[in-house]
């Protein structure tokens, strides 16, 4: 009996040690963890303002709960931001130097009041939010330049390039995406800036045009991380614009652009489509071509038509290719309450939960009359900022991005969180080990709820239509 008791006692000790050892491999949340809470509530208004922190305590059931699980991970995040249109750059560049410096620090730094914008889109040549239409190789009617001897970034050297350099001084690691609205008109079937298609005979020259753009921007100290082939290739009614069908895009990539990048040693990512979510068949058609696919990093989307879930359709078809959300406008004069709810629900939460690595709002800045724009370009595009000399007004898109950009830094990873009724949300683990949760109260009434993480809960509430940014 004594031997049996001694053996049982020894086994019990070994079991206890094993349990303790196993427990040490799954660290629990420290007892005194508190979450920062930043509130954006247009109803008050309280616009991205830090509130009293909330405490995580032992789980106590009884309210709607968002469960956050850092063990289940999804895509890596590249950043959040805007399109720095030529018009935006012009307005920034015309500010007095001290006012411009202060504003750029607010936009691109995370220190103090900085919102930490970490990704920018720029136009390759003019977009419709430039003062005029231009390319980097404009010629008199009837002339051609297939060797691109007259290529020059001069149109961007007055405003865009100087402003980008100042932004890079604030955030040297910001990623920049370039998108063309149109090739030079002499390359097009209609010889004009609006509509038309790229002539087959100039596919090779246009590929070199991209190469020269990336190389000359690099010489100016600006690294282009990625390009899209064409902004809104199925919308030839803008000025400037181009019609490019998916079979044409695939042909251009596999025969010209991909090989040209390879020969020149260019590592800039090639991203396709860059248009609405109602046509996921477009990027899938391009990716179905194996000779084009090998050069393609991923696909880009806007949401002027179609559901945000279409991004997941492309992910399911080609899970090894990345997804990007590159544009969404807000029409003047804007409606902060409605715009915040829609954009946070569909883009900041929706696009990221459907595999996008970025979310970009449309133009960073416009003047009080929504200028500048090209003849026929968008005359109702409300900037994230309205700039009138040195006077700056912050509009809905500023806050749509701020709620996530300050804390969800590049390199963050989306993690699992469930979706209680009327509380759409998205969660991240940041490179420095923090957890960030963005929650929208998508109902008209105040909601109380709990956030559960690592066996602890923090109780909080959000007014109807408000957004909470929680960091712990």
Automatic annotation (TrEMBL):
InterPro entries: GH, GH30_C, Glyco_hydro_30, Glyco_hydro_30_TIM-barrel, Glyco_hydro_b. GO terms for molecular function: hydrolase activity. Residues 77-408 form the Glycosyl hydrolase family 30 TIM-barrel domain. The keyword Signal applies. It holds the Pfam family Glyco_hydro_30C. Residues 411-470 form the Glycosyl hydrolase family 30 beta sandwich domain. Belongs to the glycosyl hydrolase 30 family. This is Glycoside hydrolase family 30 beta sandwich domain-containing protein. It comes from Spirosoma flavum.
């Amino acid at each position: 009996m004594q031997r049996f008791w001694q053996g049982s006692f020894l086994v019990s000790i070994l079991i206890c040690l094993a349990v303790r050892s196993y427990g040490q491999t799954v660290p629990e949340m420290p007892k005194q963890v508190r979450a920062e809470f930043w509130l954006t509530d247009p109803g008050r208004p309280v616009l991205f303002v830090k509130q009293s922190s909330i405490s995580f305590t032992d789980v106590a059931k009884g309210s709607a709960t968002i469960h956050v699980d850092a063990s289940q991970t999804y895509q890596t995040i590249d950043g959040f931001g805007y399109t720095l249109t030529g018009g935006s750059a012009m307005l920034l560049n015309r500010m007095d130097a001290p006012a411009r410096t202060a504003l750029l620090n607010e936009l691109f730094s995370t220190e103090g009041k900085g919102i930490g914008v970490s990704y920018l889109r720029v136009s390759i040549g003019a977009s419709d939010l430039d003062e005029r239409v231009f390319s980097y190789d404009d010629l008199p009617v009837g002339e051609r330049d297939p060797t691109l001897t007259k290529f020059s970034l001069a149109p961007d050297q007055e405003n865009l390039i100087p402003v980008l350099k100042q932004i890079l001084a604030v955030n040297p690691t910001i990623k920049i995406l370039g998108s063309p609205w149109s090739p030079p008109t002499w390359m097009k079937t209609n010889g004009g800036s609006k509509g038309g298609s790229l002539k087959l005979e100039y596919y090779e020259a246009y590929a070199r045009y991209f190469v020269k753009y990336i190389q000359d921007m690099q010489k100016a100290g600006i690294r282009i991380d990625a390009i899209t082939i064409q902004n809104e290739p199925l919308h030839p009614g803008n000025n400037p614009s181009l019609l490019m069908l998916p079979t044409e895009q695939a042909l251009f990539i596999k025969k010209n652009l991909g090989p040209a990048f390879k020969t020149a040693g260019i590592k800039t990512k090639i991203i396709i489509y860059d248009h609405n979510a109602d046509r996921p068949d477009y990027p899938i058609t391009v990716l179905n071509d194996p000779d084009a696919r090998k050069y393609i990093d991923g696909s880009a989307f806007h949401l002027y038509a179609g559901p945000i879930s279409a991004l997941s359709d492309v992910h399911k078809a080609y899970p090894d290719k990345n997804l990007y959300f590159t544009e969404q406008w807000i029409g003047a004069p804007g409606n902060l309450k409605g715009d915040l709810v829609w954009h946070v629900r569909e883009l900041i939460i929706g696009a990221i939960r459907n595999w996008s690595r970025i979310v970009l709002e449309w133009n960073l800045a416009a003047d009080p009359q929504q200028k500048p724009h090209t003849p026929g370009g968008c005359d109702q595009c409300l900037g994230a900022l309205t700039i009138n000399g040195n006077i700056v007004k912050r509009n809905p898109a500023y806050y749509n991005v701020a709620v996530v950009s300050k804390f969800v830094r590049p390199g963050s990873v989306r993690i699992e969180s469930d979706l209680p009724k009327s509380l759409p949300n998205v969660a991240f683990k940041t490179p420095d080990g923090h957890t960030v949760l963005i929650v929208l109260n998508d109902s008209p009434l105040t909601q109380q709820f709990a956030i559960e993480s690592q066996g602890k809960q923090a109780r909080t509430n959000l007014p109807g239509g408000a957004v909470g940014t929680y960091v712990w």
